[in-house]
Amino acid sequence: MEIQQLLSKYMLEISKVDDENKLYYALVGILKRILDFQVLNVLKGNEVIYSEPTEVFIDNNHYIDYLQWIEERLQPTFLPFEDVYVGMIPIFKSSKLLSLVIILTTHEPTAETIDYLQLIAYLSGITLENLRLFRIVDDSRQYYETILNVSNDGIVVLYKEEIEFKNLKAEQILNEHPKLLSKIKENLESSTEFFEFEELQAFFSLSLKKIELFGEERTLVSIRNITTEKEIQKLREVDKIKTNFIANISHELRTPLAAIKAYVETMMGMPMSQEEIQEFLEIIFTQSQRLEQLLNDLLDFSQLESGTLKIKTEKTEICKVIERAKNAVQKFAEEHNVNILIECSNIMTICDPYKIEQVIVNLLSNAIKFSDRTKEHKYVKLSVVEENDKIRILVEDNGIGIPEDKIDKIFDKFYRVDNELTYAIPGTGLGLSIVKEIVELHGGEIKVESQVGVGSIFEVILPLSNNLS
Ligand code: ADP
Q: I need a surface site. Which of 38, 62, 322, 368 has the fewest CB within 10 A?
């Protein structure tokens, strides 16, 4: 074969090698074709890393004295040694010696052959360097991939809204929660940087960060599973709620009980006129009603918890229900100096009149309880309107209002807004959760709008007639 052909073949061969040994194998192949040698060793540093024939090593006395000189010269060199020639072919890249091929041959090569050897050494050097660079890139890829894959956080890179990279954790999370990806895309559109996602009792916190890679914008998404943190937070909240509930309920029981006890003791301990007795009995009656109401709330709550809270619907004149509710809270309103205004046109509907009365009493009592002491004219306005096939009952007050960040929670069991305005106002935090349940049992809904210092509007929407009867 012509030397040019050999070189082309060699170039083709080494372009495909993927490890150093294969390169030396190819190198030995071409050297065999252009040189007649008996032994070949490849040295890297002081170590022989390849030999032909296998396990045959050239005595290092043949070349050891020339190593430094070759490293500086970087040219194939053949020196006579006794009856043979020792050939040293440095494989290098950019004046850096990568390895050294040592051969023992009986013929001194021509100047032309040495030129070819120089070219072969150069091509081999480039390939070796490429292999080395490839290994560095591959090692660092493996390094980062391992770190990313053992991470407990999901990491995703989005490019033009498509996933370009995801680590193992992200793959697992996205497989289990396929909706999460569309949520990420939605938040990407609205440029939200942080959001939380909840599904199937699992909570995730996500952060979206724009990054520039290869001159183009991408989004780095990190997904953290915060279910445990949320559970701990919930347990803490439940604990706090329990403590508050016990404190509230004790207070709710003690106040009327203390009043009843005090009035009865007074009645037993001193002679009284008939009017005084009547007045004391009325107070005792009101206080026992308060106790009864509390017990009813607890009973309703236990039914709500066990899913046994039921409604019994019948044809009902809603204004009558409202009138009864108003009468029930009238005295309470007077004590708090709150004016009750009612607007109701006669509407017939099908509902549980007692439960709806309970709803209205609760909303009115709250409006009175949470009235604003600093306002001269305190009111609660109740209006009922018929709209399409619905009844809207609006209970509007100019009381203390509800902070925006608490508004979502007020229908939760035991929840009470906890601040200096509400601190002294008695309650168990059960009323609105029972109200909501009753409204929903009717197929209706309850909404609230409120502003601190201005007042609140509770809106109960009930179907005008329903098939619950
Ligand atoms: P309670 O009245 O026993 O505290 P509720 O479940 O009826 O419990 O109400 C929950 C919380 O919602 C109240 O503690 C209060 O903080 C807030 N709230 C309810 N109604 C009003 C209102 N009309 N004005 C201001 N705050 C209210």
A: 38
pTM for the full model? 0.55
Domains annotated for the chain, with CATH where assigned, are 3-147 (3.30.450.40), 152-225 (3.30.450.20), 236-290 (1.10.287.130), 314-463 (3.30.565.10)
Identity of the amino acid at 195: F
CA distance 20 to 6: 20
- ∠214-216-217 over CA atoms, to 5°? 125
Q: How far is CA 108 from CA 5, 64, 104, 242, in A?
A: 23, 20, 10, 98
Query: Measuring from atom 13 of ligand 1, which residue has the nearest CA?
Result: 416
Taking residue 456's Cβ as centre, other Cβ atoms within 10 Å add up to 24
Phi, psi angles (nearest 5°) of residue 387: -140, 120
Which of 124, 85, 118 is closest to 102 using CA atoms?
85
For the CA of 416, the nearest atom of ligand 1: 14
Predicted local confidence at residue 1, as pLDDT: 62
User: Which ligand 1 atom is nearest residue 433's CA?
Assistant: 6
pLDDT of 468 above 50? no
Q: Count other Cβ atoms within 10 Å, centred on residue 355.
A: 22
The residue whose CB lies within 8 Å of the most ligand 1 atoms, and thus the one to mutate among 301, 359, 393, 410, is 410
Alpha carbon of 463 to ligand 1 centroid (Å): 25
Distance of CA 327 to the CA centre of its chain: 50
Residues 6+ apart with CB under 8 A from 255: 290, 426
Ligand 1: residues with CB < 6 A are 366-367, 370, 397, 399-402, 410, 415-417, 422, 427-433, 456
Predicted confidence (pLDDT) per residue in 244-258, tens digit? 778 778 888 888 899
DSSP 3-state helix, strand, coil percentages of the chain (rounded to 5)? Answer: 50, 25, 25
Cα of 360 vs centre of ligand 1, distance in Å, is 13
Q: Closest ligand 1 atom to the C-alpha of 411?
A: 6
pLDDT digits (tens, 9 = 90+) for 176-194: 999 999 999 988 888 889 9
Q: Angle 371-373-377 (CA atoms, 0-180°, nearest 5)?
A: 75
Nearest CA to 432 out of 456, 399, 454, 458 is that of 458
